[in-house]
Amino acid sequence: MTLSAYFRLIRAGYVLAREGALSIPGELPPALAPLRLGIWLGRLVERPSVRRTGHVERLNKALNRLGPTYVKFGQTLATRPDVVGAQIANDLAGLQDKMEPFDPALVPGILAAALGGKASELTELSPPVAAASIAQVHKARLRPATGLPRTVAVKVLRPGVETRFRSDIESFYAAARLAEGLVRSTRRLRPTEVVETLDRSARLELDLRLEAASISEMAENIKDDTGFIIPTVSWDHVAQNVLTTSWVDGIPIRDHAALDAAGVDRRALAAKLLQSFLRHAIRDGFFHADMHPGNLFADPKTGDVVAVDFGIMGRINRKERRFLADILYGFITRNYRLVAERHFDIGYVPKDQSVDDFALAIRSIGEPLHGRTAADISMAKVLGQLFAITDLFSMQTRPELVLLQKSMVLVEGVARALDPDLDIWTVAEPVVADWLRKEAGPMGRIDDLKDHFKVAAEAAGRLPVIVAQAELALSDYHAGKMRPRRDRLMRWALLGLIGVTGLTMLTLLYRLLTMPSW
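^ that's the sequence the OP posted. Answer follows.
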């Protein structure tokens, strides 16, 4: 870690403290309590307006001024009310990638360097139509050597953004390690892993070829779906810093007046948005993880959702998908024991905690939701209350679920803006229940069987290495002893290892076949 990383961190800390980053209202989250004195000192430089109101309206502007890495970091913190408090998480939730564009005159040169001769096929470049922390988008006319001309969107990375990200991320790692070293209670929140999540996300966003691949993968996943539209990729015009896709027309999903004027059913649009997101997350394990209003449009002809900007994608494995489905279904059906058990199964709550006590805490969250109007029942509220009991049950952060949590809150916010009376539980139930029924049926059992055999096959594949290592260890241990005795030991060791592997495979198969349906 270079000394310059700490100087950059000090500068950023001053700017953020000045704009209210330390204005945490009320009691600090337990993990941050030891920082009370440092936060008090930092607030001495805070703007008077922040001290009077307790709000941090200017913080988003400060993050934008500090650069793209801080914008991404602010967006990540918006998903962690357990770290920054509910008020600041709410303030940061409005942080979106709205930045000044870089000089459009640089774009032709960037395209020529990235695409070579293919760059000449992109004509009639417009001024920037959108500018984010990492890239900006231009409308253009694609005139290929073969085929018909068509309108496209050309996304171009900001010059020098990779270097800026690398230096800023280094400062974030320095801050996380300092927090873990100086304040032991912050280790439960895994600040280094939060930074690692941000780092991985940024590395993916900084290669637009990977975004093109994400669009391609999602297109395959949703080819038989309705209600959700994404652009197509022009692979001849893609490079590390350039992405060209079809141009999609639509009404911005935040423009409710235009939607109403076009006759778009906003209630149906909200349901399509929420169900599409849940379908992608639960069924496919691959979802758009940046579904803020600026990335969403509505097709005025069909009333379908149109999504753009696939730089941030979320991926969860089958175990995590089952966790998400069970949690949602548990709240829908008031099966709080199921919700509690799934938290233990995935490792969210340590095994030394009480399942019964945790189920009771979950009930205290779920029961007030029933009998309330749809407008009072919020997925975001449920997540916030789950965070509130993390310290009581020593719950651990799951970095792989951070993007999912953020996306669920974003999607719910957009859907509720379209339809304030949206009952998210009723809308979610068909998608969740359908997937769970399939999981409990024959195809789900076959998938379980595949997973178990895959584990067993991997273990069997390592068996020769284990045997070789055992043979070497036994050879060293019995050096100088009779060879027949060594051979007998080796045979018994080999038979023992094979027996253990076989019994493990049989046990897994037996548990799978005798497992009760969900």
